[in-house]
Protein backbone atom coordinates (compact mmCIF):
# COMPACT_ATOMS: atom_id res chain seq x y z
CA UNK A 1 0.00 0.00 0.00
CA UNK A 2 1.37 3.43 -0.97
CA UNK A 3 0.18 6.61 0.76
CA UNK A 4 0.60 9.97 -0.98
CA UNK A 5 0.44 13.14 1.11
CA UNK A 6 -1.10 16.54 0.48
CA UNK A 7 0.78 19.81 0.04
CA UNK A 8 2.64 21.35 1.77
CA UNK A 9 3.06 18.53 4.29
CA UNK A 10 5.04 15.31 4.05
CA UNK A 11 4.58 11.60 4.61
CA UNK A 12 4.47 12.33 8.35
CA UNK A 13 0.80 13.30 7.94
CA UNK A 14 0.02 9.64 7.27
CA UNK A 15 1.83 8.27 10.32
CA UNK A 16 -1.28 7.22 12.24
CA UNK A 17 -2.88 5.76 9.10
CA UNK A 18 0.36 3.95 8.30
CA UNK A 19 0.37 2.26 11.71
CA UNK A 20 -3.32 1.41 11.41
CA UNK A 21 -2.89 -0.19 7.99
CA UNK A 22 0.17 -2.08 9.17
CA UNK A 23 -2.01 -3.52 11.92
CA UNK A 24 -4.43 -4.69 9.21
CA UNK A 25 -1.69 -6.68 7.51
CA UNK A 26 -0.47 -4.23 4.87
CA UNK A 27 3.12 -3.38 4.03
CA UNK A 28 2.81 0.40 3.88
CA UNK A 29 5.05 2.83 2.02
CA UNK A 30 4.71 6.60 2.43
CA UNK A 31 7.20 8.57 0.32
CA UNK A 32 7.89 12.29 0.57
CA UNK A 33 7.05 13.77 -2.81
CA UNK A 34 9.75 15.89 -4.48
CA UNK A 35 10.14 19.23 -2.71
CA UNK A 36 8.54 18.10 0.56
CA UNK A 37 9.75 16.48 3.77
CA UNK A 38 13.20 15.00 3.24
CA UNK A 39 13.01 14.80 -0.56
CA UNK A 40 14.91 17.20 -2.80
CA UNK A 41 13.01 19.79 -4.88
CA UNK A 42 11.70 18.52 -8.19
CA UNK A 43 13.97 19.25 -11.19
CA UNK A 44 10.98 20.90 -12.90
CA UNK A 45 10.48 23.24 -9.96
CA UNK A 46 7.36 25.38 -10.24
CA UNK A 47 6.66 23.85 -13.67
CA UNK A 48 6.14 20.34 -12.33
CA UNK A 49 2.89 18.64 -13.34
CA UNK A 50 0.70 16.03 -11.72
CA UNK A 51 1.54 13.78 -14.67
CA UNK A 52 5.26 14.01 -13.82
CA UNK A 53 4.55 13.34 -10.13
CA UNK A 54 2.48 10.28 -11.04
CA UNK A 55 5.44 9.01 -13.05
CA UNK A 56 7.62 9.63 -10.00
CA UNK A 57 5.40 7.25 -8.03
CA UNK A 58 5.90 4.59 -10.71
CA UNK A 59 9.66 5.16 -10.49
CA UNK A 60 9.39 4.79 -6.70
CA UNK A 61 7.68 1.42 -7.16
CA UNK A 62 10.44 0.37 -9.54
CA UNK A 63 13.15 1.42 -7.06
CA UNK A 64 11.53 -0.52 -4.22
CA UNK A 65 10.83 -3.61 -6.33
CA UNK A 66 7.04 -3.38 -6.02
CA UNK A 67 5.08 -4.69 -9.01
CA UNK A 68 1.59 -3.63 -7.92
CA UNK A 69 0.12 -1.80 -4.95
CA UNK A 70 -2.97 -0.09 -3.69
CA UNK A 71 -2.57 3.67 -4.05
CA UNK A 72 -4.20 6.23 -1.74
CA UNK A 73 -3.67 9.98 -1.92
CA UNK A 74 -5.17 12.89 -0.04
CA UNK A 75 -5.80 16.24 -1.81
CA UNK A 76 -2.57 16.83 -3.80
CA UNK A 77 -1.78 13.16 -3.22
CA UNK A 78 -5.28 12.38 -4.49
CA UNK A 79 -4.57 14.23 -7.75
CA UNK A 80 -1.41 12.15 -8.13
CA UNK A 81 -3.31 8.93 -7.37
CA UNK A 82 -5.97 9.88 -9.91
CA UNK A 83 -3.41 10.42 -12.66
CA UNK A 84 -1.46 7.31 -11.65
CA UNK A 85 -4.66 5.32 -12.25
CA UNK A 86 -4.72 6.59 -15.83
CA UNK A 87 -1.01 6.45 -16.70
CA UNK A 88 -0.01 3.31 -14.78
CA UNK A 89 -3.22 1.32 -14.44
CA UNK A 90 -1.47 -2.06 -14.49
CA UNK A 91 0.54 -1.10 -11.37
CA UNK A 92 -2.50 -0.33 -9.18
CA UNK A 93 -4.79 -2.94 -7.64
CA UNK A 94 -6.98 -0.02 -6.59
CA UNK A 95 -6.65 3.76 -6.47
CA UNK A 96 -8.36 5.91 -3.87
CA UNK A 97 -8.64 9.68 -4.07
CA UNK A 98 -9.21 11.47 -0.78
CA UNK A 99 -10.89 14.72 -1.78
CA UNK A 100 -11.30 15.51 -5.48
CA UNK A 101 -10.48 18.97 -6.87
CA UNK A 102 -13.04 20.04 -9.46
CA UNK A 103 -12.78 23.77 -10.21
CA UNK A 104 -14.20 25.98 -12.91
CA UNK A 105 -11.76 27.86 -15.13
CA UNK A 106 -12.53 31.07 -13.25
CA UNK A 107 -11.95 29.45 -9.84
CA UNK A 108 -8.73 27.88 -11.06
CA UNK A 109 -7.39 31.21 -12.31
CA UNK A 110 -8.31 32.96 -9.06
CA UNK A 111 -6.72 30.20 -6.96
CA UNK A 112 -3.48 30.21 -8.91
CA UNK A 113 -3.32 34.00 -8.62
CA UNK A 114 -3.82 34.12 -4.83
CA UNK A 115 -3.36 30.78 -3.08
CA UNK A 116 0.40 30.27 -3.44
CA UNK A 117 2.40 33.46 -2.81
CA UNK A 118 6.20 33.07 -2.71
CA UNK A 119 7.59 32.12 0.68
CA UNK A 120 10.91 33.92 1.12
CA UNK A 121 12.65 34.66 4.45
CA UNK A 122 12.54 38.40 5.25
CA UNK A 123 15.20 40.29 7.15
CA UNK A 124 12.74 41.40 9.85
CA UNK A 125 11.39 37.87 10.35
CA UNK A 126 7.81 38.80 9.51
CA UNK A 127 7.48 35.85 7.15
CA UNK A 128 7.08 33.62 10.22
CA UNK A 129 4.00 35.38 11.73
CA UNK A 130 2.54 35.39 8.22
CA UNK A 131 3.11 31.64 7.98
CA UNK A 132 1.42 31.02 11.31
CA UNK A 133 -1.63 33.04 10.26
CA UNK A 134 -1.73 31.14 6.98
CA UNK A 135 -1.66 27.79 8.76
CA UNK A 136 -4.49 28.81 11.10
CA UNK A 137 -6.59 30.44 8.37
CA UNK A 138 -6.38 27.31 6.25
CA UNK A 139 -8.32 25.55 9.01
CA UNK A 140 -10.91 28.32 9.17
CA UNK A 141 -11.51 29.43 5.56
CA UNK A 142 -11.41 27.91 2.09
CA UNK A 143 -9.74 29.40 0.25
CA UNK A 144 -7.62 30.68 3.14
CA UNK A 145 -7.29 34.19 1.71
CA UNK A 146 -11.07 34.69 1.36
CA UNK A 147 -11.81 35.55 4.96
CA UNK A 148 -15.57 35.98 5.04
CA UNK A 149 -18.51 33.96 6.30
CA UNK A 150 -19.14 32.37 2.90
CA UNK A 151 -15.70 30.79 3.06
CA UNK A 152 -15.98 29.52 6.65
CA UNK A 153 -15.23 25.85 7.26
CA UNK A 154 -16.54 23.47 9.90
CA UNK A 155 -13.08 22.11 10.68
CA UNK A 156 -11.53 22.17 14.14
CA UNK A 157 -8.59 24.58 14.12
CA UNK A 158 -6.48 22.22 16.21
CA UNK A 159 -4.06 22.55 19.10
CA UNK A 160 -0.92 24.71 19.03
CA UNK A 161 1.14 21.52 18.69
CA UNK A 162 -0.87 20.43 15.64
CA UNK A 163 -0.59 23.85 14.01
CA UNK A 164 3.12 23.85 14.79
CA UNK A 165 3.57 20.49 13.05
CA UNK A 166 1.91 21.89 9.91
CA UNK A 167 4.05 25.03 10.07
CA UNK A 168 7.23 22.96 10.38
CA UNK A 169 6.27 20.89 7.34
CA UNK A 170 5.75 24.16 5.47
CA UNK A 171 9.20 25.35 6.61
CA UNK A 172 10.78 22.08 5.45
CA UNK A 173 9.39 22.70 1.97
CA UNK A 174 10.22 26.41 1.88
CA UNK A 175 9.32 28.07 -1.40
CA UNK A 176 9.12 24.59 -2.96
CA UNK A 177 5.73 24.32 -1.24
CA UNK A 178 4.29 25.90 -4.39
CA UNK A 179 5.47 23.16 -6.77
CA UNK A 180 3.13 20.18 -6.32
CA UNK A 181 0.53 22.48 -4.73
CA UNK A 182 0.40 24.54 -7.92
CA UNK A 183 0.37 21.39 -10.05
CA UNK A 184 -2.72 20.18 -8.15
CA UNK A 185 -4.60 23.40 -8.84
CA UNK A 186 -3.63 23.37 -12.52
CA UNK A 187 -4.60 19.71 -12.90
CA UNK A 188 -7.90 18.91 -14.61
CA UNK A 189 -8.60 15.58 -12.97
CA UNK A 190 -12.10 15.30 -14.45
CA UNK A 191 -10.55 14.94 -17.89
CA UNK A 192 -8.68 11.81 -16.75
CA UNK A 193 -11.66 10.01 -15.22
CA UNK A 194 -13.03 8.54 -18.50
CA UNK A 195 -9.62 7.01 -19.19
CA UNK A 196 -9.18 5.17 -15.88
CA UNK A 197 -9.78 1.43 -16.45
CA UNK A 198 -9.26 -0.05 -12.97
CA UNK A 199 -11.02 0.00 -9.61
CA UNK A 200 -11.12 3.66 -8.60
CA UNK A 201 -12.73 5.34 -5.58
CA UNK A 202 -13.27 8.95 -4.59
CA UNK A 203 -13.71 9.23 -0.82
CA UNK A 204 -14.52 12.42 1.08
CA UNK A 205 -16.02 13.52 4.39
CA UNK A 206 -18.39 16.39 5.09
CA UNK A 207 -15.93 18.77 6.77
CA UNK A 208 -13.42 18.45 3.92
CA UNK A 209 -13.29 21.71 1.90
CA UNK A 210 -13.42 19.58 -1.26
CA UNK A 211 -16.53 17.65 -0.21
CA UNK A 212 -18.80 20.03 -2.12
CA UNK A 213 -16.79 19.40 -5.28
CA UNK A 214 -18.28 15.90 -5.43
CA UNK A 215 -21.53 17.42 -6.68
CA UNK A 216 -19.68 18.83 -9.69
CA UNK A 217 -18.51 15.46 -11.00
CA UNK A 218 -20.09 14.15 -14.20
CA UNK A 219 -21.64 10.73 -14.63
CA UNK A 220 -18.95 8.13 -14.01
CA UNK A 221 -18.22 4.67 -15.36
CA UNK A 222 -19.10 1.68 -13.21
CA UNK A 223 -15.47 1.12 -12.17
CA UNK A 224 -15.41 4.52 -10.43
CA UNK A 225 -17.33 4.96 -7.20
CA UNK A 226 -17.94 7.95 -4.93
CA UNK A 227 -18.02 7.32 -1.18
CA UNK A 228 -19.50 10.13 0.94
CA UNK A 229 -18.66 9.89 4.63
CA UNK A 230 -19.87 11.93 7.57
CA UNK A 231 -16.56 12.13 9.47
CA UNK A 232 -12.81 11.63 8.88
CA UNK A 233 -12.93 8.46 10.99
CA UNK A 234 -15.67 6.94 8.83
CA UNK A 235 -13.65 7.88 5.74
CA UNK A 236 -10.68 5.98 7.19
CA UNK A 237 -12.85 2.94 7.92
CA UNK A 238 -14.13 3.06 4.33
CA UNK A 239 -10.56 3.31 3.05
CA UNK A 240 -9.52 0.19 4.95
CA UNK A 241 -12.61 -1.69 3.73
CA UNK A 242 -11.78 -0.84 0.11
CA UNK A 243 -8.15 -1.88 0.48
CA UNK A 244 -9.13 -5.17 2.05
CA UNK A 245 -11.13 -5.98 -1.11
CA UNK A 246 -8.23 -5.12 -3.42
CA UNK A 247 -5.10 -6.50 -1.82
CA UNK A 248 -1.93 -6.66 -3.88
CA UNK A 249 0.65 -9.43 -3.65
CA UNK A 250 3.17 -9.79 -0.87
CA UNK A 251 5.62 -6.86 -0.79
CA UNK A 252 9.17 -7.86 -1.73
CA UNK A 253 12.08 -7.29 0.66
CA UNK A 254 13.49 -3.78 0.26
CA UNK A 255 16.41 -3.57 -2.19
CA UNK A 256 19.71 -1.95 -1.32
CA UNK A 257 19.51 1.87 -1.44
CA UNK A 258 20.55 3.37 -4.75
CA UNK A 259 22.72 6.40 -4.01
CA UNK A 260 22.43 9.23 -6.49
CA UNK A 261 25.36 11.43 -7.40
CA UNK A 262 25.19 14.44 -5.14
CA UNK A 263 27.41 16.33 -2.74
CA UNK A 264 25.27 15.03 0.12
CA UNK A 265 23.34 11.81 0.46
CA UNK A 266 20.68 11.77 3.14
CA UNK A 267 19.57 8.59 4.86
CA UNK A 268 18.99 7.12 8.31
CA UNK A 269 21.27 5.07 10.52
CA UNK A 270 18.89 3.63 13.08
CA UNK A 271 16.80 6.53 14.40
CA UNK A 272 19.41 9.12 13.44
CA UNK A 273 19.24 11.25 10.31
CA UNK A 274 22.62 11.19 8.59
CA UNK A 275 24.08 13.34 5.83
CA UNK A 276 27.11 11.78 4.20
CA UNK A 277 29.53 12.23 1.35
CA UNK A 278 31.35 9.17 0.03
CA UNK A 279 33.54 10.82 -2.62
CA UNK A 280 36.67 9.68 -0.73
CA UNK A 281 37.62 6.43 0.98
CA UNK A 282 39.24 5.67 4.31
CA UNK A 283 38.31 6.55 7.86
CA UNK A 284 35.54 9.16 7.89
CA UNK A 285 35.43 12.48 9.61
CA UNK A 286 32.27 12.94 11.69
CA UNK A 287 30.96 16.43 12.53
CA UNK A 288 28.62 16.97 15.48
CA UNK A 289 26.51 20.12 15.81
CA UNK A 290 25.67 22.17 18.87
CA UNK A 291 22.54 22.38 21.00
CA UNK A 292 19.46 23.53 19.10
CA UNK A 293 21.16 23.08 15.72
CA UNK A 294 21.14 20.37 13.06
CA UNK A 295 23.73 18.85 10.80
CA UNK A 296 23.12 21.45 8.12
CA UNK A 297 24.67 24.06 10.44
CA UNK A 298 28.02 22.36 9.75
CA UNK A 299 27.77 22.30 5.96
CA UNK A 300 30.38 25.04 5.52
CA UNK A 301 32.71 23.45 8.06
CA UNK A 302 32.42 20.10 6.27
CA UNK A 303 32.96 21.47 2.77
CA UNK A 304 36.81 21.47 2.76
CA UNK A 305 36.81 17.75 3.52
CA UNK A 306 34.66 16.78 0.53
CA UNK A 307 36.74 14.65 -1.82
CA UNK A 308 39.52 14.30 0.77
CA UNK A 309 37.75 12.30 3.46
CA UNK A 310 34.51 10.41 3.78
CA UNK A 311 32.24 12.84 5.67
CA UNK A 312 29.33 12.04 8.01
CA UNK A 313 27.15 14.75 9.56
CA UNK A 314 24.32 13.41 11.75
CA UNK A 315 21.39 15.20 13.31
CA UNK A 316 21.81 14.34 16.98
CA UNK A 317 18.74 12.84 18.72
CA UNK A 318 15.89 15.28 19.16
CA UNK A 319 17.44 17.69 16.67
CA UNK A 320 16.83 18.24 12.97
CA UNK A 321 15.14 15.19 11.49
CA UNK A 322 16.32 12.61 14.02
CA UNK A 323 14.00 10.98 16.51
CA UNK A 324 14.00 11.97 20.15
CA UNK A 325 15.69 9.93 22.85
CA UNK A 326 13.70 8.17 25.54
CA UNK A 327 16.57 9.04 27.91
CA UNK A 328 18.13 12.48 28.07
CA UNK A 329 21.77 13.31 28.54
CA UNK A 330 25.13 13.39 26.83
CA UNK A 331 26.00 9.78 27.66
CA UNK A 332 22.71 8.53 26.19
CA UNK A 333 23.31 10.60 23.06
CA UNK A 334 26.81 9.14 22.70
CA UNK A 335 25.41 5.60 22.89
CA UNK A 336 22.84 6.35 20.16
CA UNK A 337 25.59 7.90 18.04
CA UNK A 338 27.78 4.84 18.49
CA UNK A 339 24.94 2.59 17.32
CA UNK A 340 24.34 4.85 14.31
CA UNK A 341 28.02 4.81 13.33
CA UNK A 342 28.04 1.04 13.70
CA UNK A 343 25.00 0.83 11.39
CA UNK A 344 26.94 3.04 8.94
CA UNK A 345 29.86 0.57 9.18
CA UNK A 346 32.26 3.05 10.73
CA UNK A 347 35.08 1.27 12.56
CA UNK A 348 37.29 4.30 13.23
CA UNK A 349 36.78 8.03 12.74
CA UNK A 350 37.93 11.51 13.58
CA UNK A 351 35.39 13.68 15.39
CA UNK A 352 34.76 17.42 15.23
CA UNK A 353 32.21 18.57 17.79
CA UNK A 354 30.75 21.99 18.52
CA UNK A 355 29.34 22.83 21.95
CA UNK A 356 26.94 20.01 22.76
CA UNK A 357 28.53 18.02 19.93
CA UNK A 358 31.94 18.47 21.57
CA UNK A 359 30.61 16.96 24.80
CA UNK A 360 29.08 14.05 22.87
CA UNK A 361 32.38 13.54 21.03
CA UNK A 362 34.29 13.33 24.31
CA UNK A 363 31.73 10.96 25.78
CA UNK A 364 31.92 8.72 22.71
CA UNK A 365 35.72 8.63 22.99
CA UNK A 366 35.35 7.49 26.61
CA UNK A 367 32.67 4.95 25.70
CA UNK A 368 34.46 3.38 22.72
CA UNK A 369 38.18 4.35 22.57
CA UNK A 370 39.02 2.26 19.44
CA UNK A 371 36.27 4.06 17.48
CA UNK A 372 37.64 7.57 18.01
CA UNK A 373 41.03 8.31 16.47
CA UNK A 374 41.26 12.09 17.02
CA UNK A 375 39.07 14.86 18.40
CA UNK A 376 38.60 18.57 17.67
CA UNK A 377 36.40 20.44 20.15
CA UNK A 378 34.89 23.78 19.11
CA UNK A 379 32.91 26.48 20.90
CA UNK A 380 33.31 25.10 24.40
CA UNK A 381 31.30 26.76 27.19
CA UNK A 382 32.95 29.77 28.87
CA UNK A 383 34.98 29.11 32.00
CA UNK A 384 33.52 32.13 33.81
CA UNK A 385 31.08 30.72 36.40
CA UNK A 386 28.85 33.82 36.48
CA UNK A 387 28.47 33.81 32.70
CA UNK A 388 27.63 30.11 32.71
CA UNK A 389 24.95 30.74 35.34
CA UNK A 390 23.49 33.53 33.21
CA UNK A 391 23.47 31.23 30.18
CA UNK A 392 21.67 28.53 32.16
CA UNK A 393 18.95 31.03 32.97
CA UNK A 394 18.61 32.78 29.61
CA UNK A 395 20.50 31.18 26.72
CA UNK A 396 17.77 28.78 25.56
CA UNK A 397 14.32 30.29 26.16
CA UNK A 398 11.33 27.94 25.93
CA UNK A 399 9.91 27.59 22.43
CA UNK A 400 6.72 25.72 23.27
CA UNK A 401 4.09 26.32 20.56
CA UNK A 402 1.45 28.86 21.53
CA UNK A 403 -1.79 29.50 19.69
CA UNK A 404 -0.70 32.97 18.58
CA UNK A 405 2.58 31.78 17.06
CA UNK A 406 4.82 33.93 19.24
CA UNK A 407 7.32 31.08 19.53
CA UNK A 408 8.20 31.45 15.84
CA UNK A 409 9.17 35.10 16.23
CA UNK A 410 11.01 34.34 19.46
CA UNK A 411 13.16 31.76 17.68
CA UNK A 412 13.90 34.21 14.85
CA UNK A 413 15.13 36.99 17.14
CA UNK A 414 17.21 34.65 19.29
CA UNK A 415 18.83 33.22 16.14
CA UNK A 416 19.53 36.73 14.85
CA UNK A 417 20.98 38.05 18.11
CA UNK A 418 23.23 35.01 18.40
CA UNK A 419 24.96 36.24 15.28
CA UNK A 420 25.45 39.72 16.74
CA UNK A 421 26.27 39.36 20.44
CA UNK A 422 27.84 36.93 22.89
CA UNK A 423 26.00 36.05 24.94
CA UNK A 424 23.08 36.95 22.72
CA UNK A 425 20.88 38.11 25.59
CA UNK A 426 23.44 40.74 26.68
CA UNK A 427 23.08 43.25 23.85
CA UNK A 428 25.67 45.84 24.84
CA UNK A 429 28.36 47.39 22.67
CA UNK A 430 30.93 45.47 24.71
CA UNK A 431 29.37 42.11 23.81
CA UNK A 432 29.06 42.60 20.06
CA UNK A 433 30.82 40.05 17.89
CA UNK A 434 32.25 40.53 14.44
CA UNK A 435 30.36 38.20 12.17
CA UNK A 436 28.56 38.22 8.85
CA UNK A 437 24.95 37.10 9.11
CA UNK A 438 22.43 36.86 6.31
CA UNK A 439 18.69 36.37 6.28
CA UNK A 440 18.78 32.77 5.05
CA UNK A 441 21.26 31.76 7.74
CA UNK A 442 19.11 33.33 10.45
CA UNK A 443 16.08 31.54 9.03
CA UNK A 444 17.86 28.18 8.99
CA UNK A 445 19.05 28.63 12.58
CA UNK A 446 15.56 29.58 13.73
CA UNK A 447 14.03 26.54 12.02
CA UNK A 448 16.64 24.29 13.64
CA UNK A 449 15.82 25.75 17.05
CA UNK A 450 12.10 25.21 16.48
CA UNK A 451 12.66 21.61 15.40
CA UNK A 452 14.78 20.87 18.46
CA UNK A 453 12.43 22.62 20.90
CA UNK A 454 12.76 21.23 24.41
CA UNK A 455 15.50 18.82 23.29
CA UNK A 456 17.66 21.79 22.29
CA UNK A 457 17.18 23.43 25.66
CA UNK A 458 18.01 20.19 27.49
CA UNK A 459 21.15 19.76 25.34
CA UNK A 460 22.31 23.30 26.13
CA UNK A 461 21.85 22.81 29.88
CA UNK A 462 23.65 19.47 29.74
CA UNK A 463 26.56 21.10 27.91
CA UNK A 464 26.91 23.85 30.52
CA UNK A 465 26.93 21.24 33.29
CA UNK A 466 29.36 18.88 31.53
CA UNK A 467 32.86 18.55 33.04
CA UNK A 468 34.97 18.87 29.89
CA UNK A 469 38.30 18.82 31.73
CA UNK A 470 37.53 15.62 33.60
CA UNK A 471 36.23 13.92 30.47
CA UNK A 472 39.26 15.01 28.44
CA UNK A 473 41.60 13.60 31.05
CA UNK A 474 39.99 10.18 30.59
CA UNK A 475 40.38 10.17 26.80
CA UNK A 476 43.43 8.68 25.12
CA UNK A 477 42.80 10.13 21.65
CA UNK A 478 44.62 13.38 20.73
CA UNK A 479 42.43 16.43 21.39
CA UNK A 480 42.49 19.82 19.70
CA UNK A 481 40.43 22.38 21.58
CA UNK A 482 39.27 25.86 20.72
CA UNK A 483 39.42 27.77 23.96
CA UNK A 484 37.62 30.99 24.93
CA UNK A 485 38.98 33.88 22.91
CA UNK A 486 39.34 31.65 19.84
CA UNK A 487 42.80 30.46 20.93
CA UNK A 488 43.73 26.89 20.16
CA UNK A 489 45.23 24.43 22.65
UniProtKB/TrEMBL annotation:
Write one Gene Ontology MF term.
monoacylglycerol lipase activity
| Biological process according to GO | acylglycerol catabolic process
Give a Pfam family name.
Abhydrolase_1
Q: Where are the transmembrane segments?
A: none
Q: Which residues form the AB hydrolase-1 domain?
A: 1-89, 284-396
In its UniProt entry, the species of origin is given as Roseiterribacter gracilis
Instruction: Name the lineage.
Output: Bacteria, Pseudomonadati, Pseudomonadota, Alphaproteobacteria, Rhodospirillales
Q: Which InterPro entries match?
A: AB_hydrolase_1, AB_hydrolase_fold, AB_hydrolase_sf
Q: What is this protein called?
A: AB hydrolase-1 domain-containing protein
Taken from the UniProt entry, a GO cellular component term is: membrane
Amino acid sequence: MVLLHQSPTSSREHESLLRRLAGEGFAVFAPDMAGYGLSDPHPLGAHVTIEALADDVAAFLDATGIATAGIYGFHTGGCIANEFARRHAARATVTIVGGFVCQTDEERAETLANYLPPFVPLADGTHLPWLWSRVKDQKIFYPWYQQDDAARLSLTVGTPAQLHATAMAFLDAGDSYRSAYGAAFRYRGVDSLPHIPGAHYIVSYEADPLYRHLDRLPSLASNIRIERCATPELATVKLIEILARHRAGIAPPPPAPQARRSAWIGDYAGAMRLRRNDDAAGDPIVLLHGAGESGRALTALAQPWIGRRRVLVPDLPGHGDSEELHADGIAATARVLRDALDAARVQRCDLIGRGFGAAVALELARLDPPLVHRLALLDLPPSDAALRDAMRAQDAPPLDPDFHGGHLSRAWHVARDRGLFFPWFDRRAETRIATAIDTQTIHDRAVDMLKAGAAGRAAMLATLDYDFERAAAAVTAPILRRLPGNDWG
